[in-house]
Structure formats: structure tokens, C-alpha cells
Design a protein that fits this description.
Number of strands: 2
Helix content: 40-55%
Oligomer: single chain
Radius of gyration: 11 Å
Number of helices: 4
Order of helices and strands: HHHEEH
Length: about 70
């Protein structure tokens, strides 16, 4: 879903931050996951330094790694 958001909304001028701000509940709805699973997944990605989050903003730090996880 994060890759879909990058494709659909793009990134801000910094080339890392999603151009849309979303609540975890909204991400869960878009991905057909429950909110708790989204929170766990995003926390795991943060620990691996794949993403960073601040409030409703999501920064994709390692887009290539995220793409490899999907493949």
C-alpha cells in the first residue's frame, strides 16, 4: 500500500515524504488491514529504517528496500 500511495500521490519536493498525510486508520482501510496490523508493520519498518513517520507524514527512506519486500 505504501508503494501504491507513492505511485498515486507522489512525493514532496524532498523526494522522500509522501505528498499526502494519512491517519493509520486510513492506511488500514486502503490496505484492507486492521489498524493494529498497520501500526505493527509501520513500527517494524521504522526499526529497520525503511520509513520514518511524524504525525500523519510518512517518509520513505529506503524505497528500493520497500520495493524488494513486495517482490
Amino acid at each position: 500500500t505504501l508503494l501504491d500511495l507513492v505511485d498515486f500521490f507522489g512525493l514532496q519536493d524532498d523526494g522522500k515524504t509522501l505528498a499526502i498525510e494519512l491517519k493509520r486508520k486510513e492506511i488500514a482501510s486502503l490496505s484492507s488491514m486492521n489498524t493494529a496490523n498497520v501500526i505493527r508493520m509501520m513500527s517494524h519498518f521504522k526499526k529497520l529504517k525503511i520509513i520514518n513517520t511524524k504525525l500523519r507524514k510518512i517518509q520513505i527512506l529506503k524505497l528500493d528496500v520497500l520495493k524488494n519486500l513486495v517482490d
